[in-house]
Amino acid sequence: MKPRQPNILIVDDELQNRRLLAVLLGPEGYLTSSAASGEEALAAISTVAPDLILLDLMMPGIDGCAVASILKANPATAHIPIIMVTALVDRSARLAGLDAGAEEFLTKPVDRAELWLRVRNLLRLKALGAIESHSAELEQQVQARTVELQRFRTAMDATADAIMLLSHKTMRFVEVNATACAMLGYSRDELFSMSPCALDETDPQQLAGLCDALIALGTDTALSTSELVRKDGTRVQVDIHRQAMRSDNDWIIVAVVRDITARNEADRRLHHLAHHDPLTALPNRMLFYATLKKTLEVAIDSRWKVAVLFIDLDHFKAVNDTLGHMVGDELLIQFSERLTQCARIRDTVGRLGGDEFGVILVGQEGQQAAAVVAGKIGAALRAPFLLHGHEVSVSASIGITIHPDDSSDPDTLIKYADTAMYRAKQAGRDTYRFFTAQMNADALAQLDLESALRRAIDQEQFVLHYQPKLQLSDGRIAGVEALLRWQRPGVGLVPPNEFIPLLEETGLIVRVGSWVIAAACRQIAEWLASSVGAVHVAVNVSGRQFIDNDLDAEIALALEKYGVPGELLELELTETSMMANTERTIDILCKLKSRGVQISVDDFGTGYSSLSYLRRFPINKLKIDIAFIREVTTSPDDAAIVRAIISMARSLKLEVVAEGVENEMQLNYLRRHQCDEIQGFYVSRPLTAAALRELLACPPVLNLSEGNFARQVLLIVDDDALMLDMLADVFSADGYDILTAHSAADGFDLLALHDVQVILCDQQMPGMNGNVFLDIVRELHPETIRIMLSGQSDLLPIMGAINQGAVYRFYSKPWDNKLLRDNVRAAFQHYRAMQAMAAAQRALPLP
Length: 847
Ligand SMILES: Nc1nc2c(ncn2[C@@H]2O[C@H](COP(=O)(O)O[C@H]3[C@@H](O)[C@H](n4cnc5c(=O)[nH]c(N)nc54)O[C@@H]3COP(=O)(O)O)[C@@H](O)[C@H]2O)c(=O)[nH]1
What we know:
The longest helix has 46 residues, at 112-157. The strands form six sheets. An eight-stranded mixed barrel has the order 18-19-21-22-23-24-25-26, surrounded by six helices. The chain contains 32 helices and 31 strands. The protein has five domains: 7-127, Rossmann fold, CATH 3.40.50.2300; 132-265, 2-Layer Sandwich (Beta-Lactamase), CATH 3.30.450; 280-435, Reverse transcriptase/Diguanylate cyclase domain (Alpha-Beta Plaits, 2-Layer Sandwich), CATH 3.30.70; 457-697, TIM Barrel (Alpha-Beta Barrel), CATH 3.20.20.450; 713-841, 3-Layer(aba) Sandwich (Rossmann fold). It starts with 6 loop residues before the first strand and ends with a helix. It is an alpha/beta fold. Strand 12 and strand 13 form a beta hairpin. It binds ligand LFPHGCPZ. Residues 467, 481, 483-484, 495-497, 500, 509, 516, 540, 542, 572, 602-603, 623, 626, 659-662, 679-681, 686 line the site of ligand LFPHGCPZ. Keywords: Phosphoprotein. Residues 446-700 form the EAL domain.
């Protein structure tokens, strides 16, 4: 390229001088322009700045010094070199010129060689000055950029995300921050020298394609999740935001890389938490369901069978309620471990909630495999669990459904397995049941019944019947028990056993129970206001009424609403319901008792039966369950239980009511053993309110004669009628009340009805012989004195009976009348002595 010709401005008021200088400069390749005055020069310079100015010192108007001063004062023109041309040779004129800013002087007339030399030197110097200032400028720029870059790097390095800048042209990193180095284990220089493809195992074409796509996106950023390989070969999961940015004639791909390992781990943990039971770590209901759904999809294609086992621990609630939730939790954990061991790796074990677990079995066998696993689960539970120092034995009830036999829908399979599990429970627990179509029909019937019951509640289709309780001391009606009946439209009166279990199961018992309390209070108030007067009414209360609502407030409200004194209301609770939620139940019962409400334990003897535990409850009465009353006069076991309950109740100062009394024998037996009240068909069946009113107006007269308590009653038992007569004759003169029985059965009835003190019994009787009879009597009526009459020479059975305490004396037939009478008299004396001793013991204070 041809160098640019320097442009020189000649300023002189003399044309001659201007022309001369132009002529002198022309041959040296300079372009010249001229100005005839200082003003003209300044105007020209403001338009085009010359490379050098030859300035005449002495000019009219603005002289050379003034022009120089103006130009040097202006930064835009200060750099233009000025050669002052003057005819003046004195020193002061020259100094004035230099002072004004001129770089050089030429004296007129101008010497050509000196002119060229000065011009050339000044132009060179100017060029040098321009370069220097340019490099200074450049240096400044570089410094500024370096500071900027440093600041940028510091900022980049302080960023938690890795930042990597990739040149599109070179496909190499041009910048990376410290986080990138730390994340990937490479130094900055290593990253600059390596191909980015090594980091995510792509090939260069892929990378180029990715960059092109980003460039096409413009300023938009693209997000992707990827995995990068560290220097040590390990992998790091990352989110990458990429953006292409123009940089001169290149594109820079900016990648902001975030390590998402921790986030992924947190996500994984969250996912695990959402799908697993935190206590047992087993899949929860949601995951169990999802697994079953997937398993069924595969099974349908591959024609496999899938069995679903629904497992529920038996009496788990009792463990929880009595030993506490910590023990309950531990049981669930240990059970889940045993359960998992019963399944194969490919099976799924899950916790469906509470004490309910599920197992999914896949295979060809279906039923057989399910039965085997169910058997294994049962066997796994044989060994007791050691739970925080308590040894606990539990069993499980299992329901089983099979795909494709029962259904191929996950919901239905689980529901059917649940239904079958209930059947296993009903069958006595600790067993398993396969689902059957009948179960489904039953389940549907249950649903029908449930909706009918909901309607019954809304439409108040319930009524109360009342069954009297008789006080044994005086034969008066002591009160009544309110018993629920359902007047089901189109069906008639439905007894509670047919619907109370479902009310309990569905929780509807709480609403119905509230209705019962209100209805009973309303009825008490009605009787109170009528000629009937005060009637003490007991209502049955379910355990759920204690848990699900504020029973105390509810009863208080009902008593207040109907103006009923608390003393006329009694609550009957079963032992089992008392054991659930003990503390809350005790609290509520105490509040109720303070209102005068009586509390009795229903069905006593069938549940927990721990009187020491029951002492914590503010109870007034025990109701002995009907199961012990049915055979109380013939079953030594039942009789012993009844007597034990009465005696324990006495010592705790509780009243005792026997329920289900159906005959006079039971009544007398209970009366003789100090039972306070009886309830049962013998007194009356449950009655409508109207029928009860009539009964109360004209109460039943029951045979409650003082009996023969003060008399001496001798029972003679012999199948031989002649023998019976003879024996009765022998004792007729001794003033006893003599009862005769032809068989053991008759003997039991008479013993129940009368206060027999001495028994004389033939050993050889058909049916039950004397040994067995007296042995049972010993248990039923231990206070009696039992004498055996034997015609046998074999004394061994009699000796046995004597040793067991069943027989007090024995006599061989034929007997000596006098000896026999003496001994019977002695037997009565012995009886009285024993009674006196027992009474004295009873009178002693309790330990
Ligand atoms: N939670 C509630 N439970 C209630 C309510 N009303 C009744 N029930 C419970 O339902 C069960 C069955 O009651 P029901 O069919 O009324 O039977 C009672 C009596 O009829 C029956 N009974 C009475 N005497 C005799 C008899 O001599 N022989 C005989 N075979 N049965 C007899 O016993 C039932 C009373 O039992 P109990 O309550 O234990 O005293 C029953 O469990 C009721 O409790 C209610 O409102 N809420």
